[in-house]
Every structure is written in C-alpha cells, then in structure tokens.
Please model this.
Amino acid sequence: MADERADRDGRPSPDALLELARQEDSRVGRLKIFLGAAPGVGKTYEMLQNVKARQREGVDIVVGYVETHDRKETAALVEGLELIPRRAVDYKGQALEEMDLDAILARHPKIVAVDELAHTNVAGSRHPKRYLDVEELLANGIDVYTTLNVQHVESLNDVVAQITRIRVRETVPDSVLDRADEIELVDLTPGDLLQRLKEGKVYVPQQAERALEHFFSHDNLTALRELALRRTAERVDEQLLSRMKAQAISGPWAAGDRLLVCINEDHRALGLVRYARLLADRLHAPWTALYVESRRTAQLDDAQRDRIADTLRLAQSLGAEAITVPGGGRHIADDVIGYAKSNNITQIIIGKSARSRWFELINGSVVNELLDQAGNIAVNVVPGEREAAGVNNRTSMAIGTTTRTFDFRPYGWSTAIIAFSLGVGLVLQPVVSDANLDLVFLTGVVAVAVRFGLWPSIYASILAAVGYNFFFTQPYLNFAIDDPRNVLAVVFFTIVAIVVSNVAARAQVQAVAALARARTTESLYAFSRKLAGVGTLDDVLWVTAYQIALMLKASVVLLLPQNGNLEVMAGYPPEDTLEPADVAAAKWAWENHRPAGRGSDTLTGAKWLFLPMTTGRGQVGMIGLASKQPGLNLTPDQRRLLEALIDQGALAVERVNLVEDIEKARLSMETEKLRSAILTSLSHDLKTPLASVLGAASALRDLNGLTEFQRKDLLSTIVDEAERLNRFIANLLDMMKLESGAVRPTSELHDLSEVVGSVLRRAEKILARHKIETALASDLPMLAIDPVLFEQVLFNVLDNASKYAPAGTIVRISAQRAHDKIRLQIEDEGDGIPAGEADHIFDRFHRATKGDQVRAGTGLGLTIARGFIEAMGGTISAGNRIDRSGAVFTVELPVPVNPKQIGPTP
Amino acid sequence: MSTALKVLVIDDEPPIRKLLRMGLTSQGYEVIEAANGKAGLELLAAQPGIVILDLGLPDIDGLDVLQTVRSRSESVPIVVLSSRGDEVSKVRALDLGADDYVTKPFGMDELLARMRAAVRHQLQIQGERPIFKVGELSVDLVRRIVRVKEVEVKLSPKEYDLLRVLVQHAGKVLTHRFLLGELWDALTDAQYLRVYVRQLRQKIETDTERPQYILTETGIGYRLRAPE
Model:
C-alpha cells in the first residue's frame, strides 16, 4: 500500500487532512449551497424539494427562512414543513421581518434551510449579514441548506460587473463557498429562464425592473451560467484534490506555487486582490497579500489608510494571508522582492501604475524595479479597473468615524517664515550681493520643510521664488526680469528650493516615523518588562488595561471567565459594570472566538468592541475597547500595536494561570506524598504496638499453664507497648499543633540544668539501659525558653538516642557557652548517622535506614524537636562524632540580650 | 486501715470506671461511682475519703465540679484524672484546689501513689508531724533544723520558708503561683522562685542536675518527694 502513494515522501498532506477532519468533525454543521446563475432558476424550489426529501427520511429538518415571492409552486412546497417564525424588527418605523437566529439555535434541528445567503440584515441585528448568521448556525453544529446566486460571490464581483454593467452590493466571501461541504448547481438554460421571465414566474422587485431588463439578456445569462458552472466545477475539483492529497495520491497539480499580491492605497487594489484570488484558485496555490509601509504611509490620509486595511481584510476573507511589513528604505520593490524570496513566492501580482510618468520619474516605478529584480519570480502586472466609488463601504475596525479638515495653519506659518526671510533679505541687501540673498530664502524654505512637511514647503518655495523675483532681481519691486542671467537665477532658485524642501520634508517624515516607531518599541518593551515583573493576576490585568488605554487613548476593560461567567476583572479608566448589550457582545465574542461589538461584524449596537485574547493554548480572556470621543480610528500601526499588546497581555495572563496551576499541582503532590507517608506511618506505628498489646492480653486471658515469669513478661509487654503507642499519639498531637501554628512558646528565663534534670527524670524509663552523663558548664546563664517545649525537644532527642545507640553505651549531655549562644550537645555511641542522611533526619516521617534491629520510631520526634526549637528562636542540627562512632545532636540557643540578674534576696 | 477508705470516681467512661473499681477494690478501697458531674456532686453526700475526677464530663465541666466542691468548703482530697495533658489545664485544676493531677493514659501504680500522697497530706494537715523525713533529708519544723545525711544545712530565711511550704505539702504538686503566693505574693515573677529553688537544691541535693527531693513539674511547679 505504501509504495502506491506516489507523493514525494508518500505522506498525506497535513493541511488536506485537517480540511477533511474539519469536514468530518460532527460538532460543526455541514453546509450545502444551492448555487444558481441568476434569479429565477429555481434554487429555492430545489432546496425545498431537498428539505421535503430529508423530511420524508425522518431527518429533523426545519425551514429557518424562505422567500416564496408568492409563487404557488414554492408556497405549496412549504406546506407541511416546520417553519421557524420570523422575528419582527422595527426599523425606522418600518416593520421588517428577519430570520430568528436565536429561535433556530434554541430549536437546534439537525438541518435548517435558509434562503438567500447574500441577504443583508436590517441594522441592529446581531450580524450585519446573513452568511454570518449561517456561520453561527454551523458553529453550533446545525447543518444548513442555503441558496446563492453566482453574482454574489465576492471574487466574481468584478467579472459579473464587467459582464452585466451592474455591480452587486451584497456579496458573500469566497471562504463561505470554500467551506461548503456540498454545492449543488441549479441549472436552467438561458432560453428557459427567459421563457419563465416572460411568464412572470421570476420575481423582480419593481424598482429594479429596468435595470434587470438589461440584466436578463441572453448574453448575460449565458455568461453568468458559464461562471456558475465553472465555479462549481472548480469546487468539485478542489474537493477531489483535497481527497487525493489526504490520501497521498500523486496528482496533476503544480507543486509549490505561491502567490504574492502587492497592494497600496489605490482604489483598484480591491480588484487586484480579487484577481489574485482567482489566479490562486486556478493554480491551487496559497497566496499572500502584502502591504509595504513606506515613508509615504505616514502621509496618507485616514480614508487611504482605511482602504489599505479594508483591502487586507478582503484578502483575508478571500483566503489570503494578509501581511504588512515596514519598508526598509527608498525602494518598495526591494522590500517586496525580499519578502518574496524569503517566503518562496513564485508569482508576484501587482497593479499597473496609474501615476503620471512625471511621478514615476521622481519616485521611481515600483513595477519597473520589480521587473528588474524579480529574477526567476514571475511578475504579473494587472491593469485593474477603478471601482465605482462607494461600493466598498466595508466596515473597517473603527470606533467612530473621523473627519479630516484642511489645516491652514502650516501655510500661515510658511507665509510668515518667508516674510521674515524677506525682511532679513531687505536688511542685508545693502551689504550682500543680490545673488547671495537667495540663500536667506532657501534657509526659510528648509525651515518650513523640516517643520511642516512637503506641501507647505512647496508652497513656501513658490512664495520665496516670487518674493525673490519681486524684491531682489532688476528691476526691483517688479515681477519683470531684465537680465537673462537673473531669469536663470530665479529658475534655478525655484528648482533648488523645491528639491531641497522635498528632501528636507522626506527626512523630517522619516525622522518622525522613526521616532514614533522607537517610542512604540520602547513602550512595548517597557510593557513587557512591567508584565514580567508582576506576579498576581490582578496586577497583570491592570498593567495590560492601563497600557492599552494609554497607547490607544481609549477606554479598556478586561474580562476573564470566572466560574463559568465572563466578568470584568480590570479596566482603565476603572469600570466594573457593562450594559446588557455589551455583556451580550462580550459573551458572543467569547463563545465564538471572534471579535464582536461596535465596529465588528457582530452585535454592532454595543458600545464596546470586544476582541479575544488568545495564546497558542487557547482563549484566556476578552478585551473591550471603547472611545468617548468619535475619531478613534485604528490605523494599521495601531492595529499592529494593539495586537502586540493583546498578545503580550494574553501571554502574561496565561503565565500567571500556569504558575498557579503548577503551584497547585506541586502542593497537591506534596500533600499527596505527605498523606501517603502519614498513612504508612499511622498504619505501622499504631498497629504494631496495638498488635503486641492485643496479642499479649489475649494470651494472658486464653492460655492456661503460663509460668509466673511468662505472665510477668507478657504484662510488661502490654505496658511497654501501650506506652509506646502513647508516645506516638503525643507526637502526632504535637505535630498537629506545630502544623496548625498553635505552638506559641512562652519565653521566660530558665535554668538549663533544671530542665535537663526534669527531662532525665521523665526519660528514666526509655534510657534505663543506657548510662547517662551530664556535663553542664557551671557559668551558664539563664535561658529564655519555654520549659515544656524545650523539655520535649530534649526528650525526643534522647528518645532517638535510646533507639539507635546500643544498650550499655553512654549518652552524654553537655552544654557550654559559645559567644552569644548556648550550645547543648547530646552524643551517643551508636553507629552514627548514615552518610547523606544528616540533612533529612529532621524531615517528617523520615527514618534512618538501619535495618531491622532498630525499634521503629515514629519518624516525627526529630521533626517536632526542630519545630519546637525553631519556634523558640534556636536551631538544632545533627552530625557524627569526630572522636568515635556515634551521632551528635547540637542545639543552639541565643543568650538573652539583657538577662535580668536576680540575686538572692534575704 | 480498719475501715476501708471510700473513693468517689466521677468519670463518664465505663471502661475507666471498671478499671478503677477493680484496681482500687483490690487495694482495699471502697469505690462509689458517678457517670456525670451532677451525680458526682450528689454522691459527695456519701462522705467519700477521696475523689477521682475526670475533667471531660458530659454535663458539667470537671473544673466546674472542682470549683463547686471547693466552694462548699469541702476539704476532701481530689485527684484529677484527665486526658487533657497540657500544662495550662493542669495549673488551672491545681489552682482551683485539686490535690493532684494524673493524665490519661495512666499507670495504676502512679495513680495509687498520688492518691496515697493526697490522703496523707490531708491527714498531715490535720495533725502536723513535727519532724519530716524523706530519704536522707529531715526537716524539724518546730526547731527549724534541716539535716541532710545527719549534717545540718544552713538555710537563709527565704530558703527555709520555701522548704517548709514544700514539706507541708509533701507529695503534692505546688504551682508556681501557689508557691509565690505563700512566699511573696502571687504576682511576683516566677524567676525569684526558680532562683531560690536552685539555691535550695544546691544545699540539699547531692546532684543538682538529677534532684532527688525537690522535683520539677515542668511548666506547672514543684513537688517535694513524699516519704515512703
């Protein structure tokens, strides 16, 4: 099987597999489009017949929206189908009806039929377009049947307009067609269609009657039919390719074509993008739309910037990757070629320049440069056609609208500066030759260029030329020029002034752009540094909100899921409640992983624009943007900045969440480890003595003929083991006290020897088989200790010694002063602490690994000792004796700073 | 003992009562039992010679029982037998008038020894013996002479007062507060007491690090070993 796969390395293409997986993903609904060449071919009829058929098969199918246009055949088909009632919408006093999206979602049928995919919803609906409604239905796992005419397909928009001379405003992105699982072509020959038209079987809106007369010509219909057939065929082809690629079947497709379409602010860029899409489709090639930001970008007005953004958005909706790169230098062509080479582009598509030869002479022609440098990359130069103005009023991601008025102030200042230059010239005229006075004017022109940019500087150049001519060429105070040399001087002055002002203005623009970039970079850097420095979620959110608000001059809220609800977690300026419309938009955006609210495609009635904050691992939150003053229009720069800010914020939020998760996991692991240690310890240490007690007691009760000695032995076993159990329980209780923080040592001055005395009395029994030596220095000061806790510390250490040191050996307790500390040592003559365990013997439930001959301890005694001694401000450590084998425990306590000296009073 | 000493056991745990009944009866005591505080207070009418009192009673807190008994100016010796092992509870019980305090779990021998000490102390107060002897220590309370191994020991007045109080309550735990109250006043710093105990030990004990007579009850107070 494997060698039948002729693809290069015999592996299925991952993209193709993903596509298949998407189609087979049962959670996403399946889309079937009934595509027609023109109105009246019978799409709705065909769709309803399909619905009927499904209904007969017992499929749960409903009609979400259907337009019968009062045609009997169609109306008859609707009979007996489940219709979702339409939603009545009041629009400017007009009662309109729209598809009830929420009702369908609530009803959640297997399949829903929705007529007229290209329909534009009435303002105030959740989505502006019906195809967006359909996408939501699909996203919710509902299959959709829908109808579409070929002239509404976005990429065919230009072609259709060329054929029919009618530009259709309602378009559906190709991506919707591409994601359709099935496309059924509803075909009718032009002759039959015209026949139906004559019979009045085609619905024609009255106001469009005349336009449609032209539309329904035989030629047009033939052309449209061909388009529809071709589009369907392409689609079939795509599906076939997709299947073949998924199964790694070697195909006839050209390998590795990649298209790049260069766009600019020109109106025709939209057509260029559509053309690129068609070409990419035909080549089955991935494609990219590229905008290079040059020095001219800064000079574009808002309308032009929006057009660029819209073009990029269109490209994206047509399936392209939309990229903006900052230009490196003077030649845009260099940047384009650079991008193309590094991205393995095989074909570049660029529009034929509409600029004058003069402009190209000065600025260079991008097309020519591209052709020069392209090497083995094919360059398609496309003439393109100017779009009818106003057709593409697509919503850009804008909050509010902006009006740009002409600013006269730079020109006023320019006039003033030239007037000042003139004044200086007049003052200097007696001492300087006229020929040199032009330098004074040039200085003024350069100043204007640097301060106000290109157009004011050109204005200033002309003004200066005129002024120079009027005042400083013979005859004075006259525009006439006598001397031909002076004519030359004025001409050259004008040329020099314009060139210099141009250069200066360009330098200034670049400086401003560089400064802006530097500022942006710097604040981004500062932002990421700030984010890295904060540890809590609240701080991260606040810093993010503040930074975005600051850099975009907008209001910002951040929403995070809390117990299943989206809640406002931070805002700048502080905001903690949103209006219901905004909450709905935020919720929709969260659930659908897409922008919603003002300026987006969805729920545009909201005040805020909500954007998802996503990282590679998924959505972490939602950011809301709003602006009080109209005029916040996000330029490509700002959009990129916003994306960077959101990305960084999202990453930081995720980081905090991850840290919390890790901490939780670590804690639960630790708790788990401790719990299992406790369980082991409890079951062992509680059961062993109990077993001895029970065993001995039952032996005493049940066994006859025990000697007196045996009886005594059993009895002392019971007593010893019960006492051991008692010590263990006491230890557990001490441990609990320590853990719960209930140990609050009193601190009074005590005589160490007294405490040692009482602990030795208490430990008499456990140390019965050892010899005890004490060596307490006679000059020991009183110690600030809690005697009860301290006695317990000593007892536990002695208990430990009694277990690990063999019977008959010496346990030595010594104490002396060492600088500002009292050092107390307990030494035994056992085998000492095994290498590497000295650090661990104070750990909970740690037992020295020392074979079976050692009586099991609780593993808590030393932990408690350390806990208590630390609570009293002292330390305890363990080591081995140097002079011989054996362990030594060292307890150190600070000498009280100013011990009260209490002498005997008579 | 001609007539058996009557012991009132106030404890809600039947196994403990059973154990005490067996142990005490075997030692010649007569045992009467109460399972709660109220019944215990009523049984006081039976004139027991000593009371063994649990603190964790179902109806009345043992400390309240103790207080009630003492407020009736009954001088019956009371030994508290409780699982509350912390020093604060012990001190409170002793300050409220308990003669001794034994923590559960307990050894029967220890309990019997404490009971004997409490009863003897009672008898001692009623008829104070002029010469007290334990081990090699003897204290003549009339002539104020203290001897260790037949050698007279010179004590300062305060040291002697401390020893006298301990002797008068020999075998019984005396809280710091009680001792301070007897020698100075109850609010005096316990530091003074420790200093005098240390000095006293140096004079009467052979090994001050392992004292034989003045025993430290850590966190509570001191006890003078009772004569055998």
Remarks:
- Chain A touches chain B through 29 residues (CB under 8 Å).
